[in-house]
Structures are given as C-alpha cells and as structure tokens.
Amino acid sequence: MPGNDKNFDELSEQFARNIYQQPKGKIRLEVLWWHLQKVFPELSAFPGMRILDAGCGMGHIAIRLAELGHEMTLCDISKLMLQHTEQVFQERNLKNSSTFIHSSLQALPDNLKRFDLIVCHAVVEWLDDPQQALSELFERLAPGGRLSLMFYNRNSLVMRNLIRGNLYKVASGEFSGEAGGLTPTQPLDSQLVYSWLEDLGMTIIARAGIRTFYDYMTRRDHISIEDIIEMEINLSEQEPHLSLGRYIHVVCRKPG
C-alpha cells in the first residue's frame, strides 16, 4: 500500500452502516449515477466498454455498469471490500465478464489493457499523493478515454463549519479527518483538482455537485428522500450550488 493511503479493512462494516445504509449514501449514489448516464448515454447503448473501477469499495457503481454489459476490472486495497463485491457479482451472475485485483490503483499490473473509461469515486481524498494518483489513472486510459472522478470537496467543509460558527477552525485551514474516522484525510480544493487534470492534458467536459444542500439541512424529517434526490439533481450542475457540494463529480477526456 503506497505511503499512508487509507485501507478500509478495519472500517468496512462501519463504512457500510454509516454511508450506504443512510440517506446520504443513497443520495450520493443516485445523483452520481444520474450524472454518469447523462454524460455517457453510450453506457446503455453500446455494451462492451473496457472499464476500470479504481478503488471500487463495495461496488455499487461497478455492479450497475456490469449489468449494462461492460467489461469490468475492479481494484481496491481493502481485501474485505473487494471480497464482498466479488461475492455480489457472483450472486448476480456478473463475474464472468469481470476481473478483481487486490491492489491499490498505483500498483496495478503493467500488462493491463488501456481502458475506455475509468471511474474513481471517493478515493483520491484518502491518498497521500492524489495528484500522482491522477497521473497513474491518466496512463491507464486509452487515447480518447474518459475519467469519471468524484472527490470530497474542501469548500463544503468550509461552508459547513462557517454555518456552525467554527470560525477558528476555518481560519486554521485544517480539515483533515481524524484517524479511524470516515472524514477523508485530505479534502481537496476543487480548483486545484481541475488544474491537475488540465496539466495532464485532460479536457474537462462535465461537472456536478453531489449533495449540494442535503448536508446543510437543519430539518429533514418532513421531506421524502425522493424529493431531495430530485432537487439535488436539479441543482447539481448549477453554480453556486455545484461548488458547494459535499462531493464534486468531474468528467474529463484524454487526448487522442
């Protein structure tokens, strides 16, 4: 495992319980999936794309992509999460067209074919060197290939702490999560991420904020999750809401 990159083996159950079994996890997944399908209508129309899920976790997006008929390669440094995802693929008869690799995205075998699409969601903010990780993903893309990157947005933490009156925390500029917690160790400035991608020669073709207002809500019990998801989708590509999302999904294309 490179450096001190986060491994969720010891936190896999907590991760599943606190993220995927909660409304915030469902909102994140549904808005992200909506945006992926909007940007890539060919996902449904043209099966057989070579897709890498870099840091697949519990495979929620990878499963949907495999069900559309794509050739999936999944990697994760968490052996427990990868085993869980592989079992789900087996139960859904999706394993024959999929490859599972217990590895960080930086240590994938050199002999892998280049990918038409790489999805890397909620991963780079847990890495020691996120910029280098993006460079690794760039090299794994085929010419003209696309990267779907979702990262934890530092701007949202600034706003959340301002709303709570934590002015001294904002002034300190220190937003790293605590060891053993589920707040990422390196929340990322969106403009910095965009500059890293552009420095690689990538063309940014779409952006969306994920959970642009849900995390700021003081009352949630009187609104259905379906209505929240609908409004999140409506605001996801609009500024200033986009740049205040808890996550930002950016899609870019490699030259070629």
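^ that was protein a. below is b, sequence first then the tokens
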Amino acid sequence: MKYPKIECEYCNRLVSNTNIKRHLDYCSRKIIGTCPVCGNPTKEGSATCSYSCANTFFRTSEGNGRYKSDEEVQYRQVCFRHHEKKCVICPEDKIVAVHHFDENRANNDWKNLIPICPTHHTYMHSKWKYLIDEKVKEYHQRVSQRI
C-alpha cells in the first residue's frame, strides 16, 4: 500500500504522511534562512540549499578568485571568431584555452589572443616557457601581419 505524500511547509519536500510529524519537527529546528540562488529554505550551517546552488553562488560571486565577469568570458568568443579552435603547438582541438600574448588579461584584442591547449598554456606561465615560446611568437607574428 502506497502512503500519500504531504508537502513539508519548511523545505517543500514531499514526505509520507506516516513520517510528516517527525519531518516537520526536524525541519522546523533546522531551517534558518533562504537560499540566495533559488529562494528555497536553507538549513543550519549552510549558505545555500543544495550543492548545485552552492556551485552557482560561490563560483559566480565577485569574491571568488575564479570569478569571471562578462567581459572576461567574451575574450574566448573573440579568440575563436578569429582563430581556429586548435592549439598552436600541438594538434589538440577538444580542450583549448586562450593565452594573452602580452600577458595583460585586459587586452582582449584578437591579435593578442592565442589559442593553446591547457598543458601548453601552463608551460607559458612556468619555467618551461622556453620550450614553446618560439612557436607561440611565430604564430603571433603571422597573425599580426594578417589584416
């Protein structure tokens, strides 16, 4: 026999009517706020209601070190509009990062953007830069001559 479900007034979950009293007692003591992402109730000790909302909230806020504004995200679109989506060093075309040739992230001119795989992008910012620097400079020079 299937028991009917009742919606919890605190967390909006459907709970079997045989367990609703226990659930309401638990929820009423644990619910302390509202999720800033979706508006659902949050429990004690949590800023958000779920992992999904936490990912959205903490990864997209300006206080996060990995936060990217709309301008910063658009440089990838600019890059791939003018360059082939392929690493300039190796044949990688599945996962391609964008390197700022002058290393100034504010300079999003398409001639300054270099498509490069994450491995070689890491090289560009490490002591191993000398291994690929010449190829990157040659690519940048060819691109700069294009009009």
